[in-house]
Design a protein that fits this description.
By secondary structure, this protein is mainly β. The chain has no helices and seven strands. Strand 5 and strand 6 form a beta hairpin.
Length: about 80
Amino acid sequence: MNLEIGKEIYVHQTNYYSGYLVNKNGGERAKITHIGDSDPEGFHAGALCYVEWIDRPMVYQQNGSFRPFAQLWLCEPD
């Protein structure tokens, strides 16, 4: 798997904690902000990554704004 911090990828999120990499036409655009380790217990395929959703609207709060993000186990499709 070719994951790098700052890289723009396309993700199909299957549930709140996992997703897989897809081509441009099949997923939502995201940017990797942090890459964790793979699952030592083997419960999840791929690597644990934090991604920012590029095309989702900014979230505005009293103390500032931020781009929506998710923590996902990312893997390549079968």
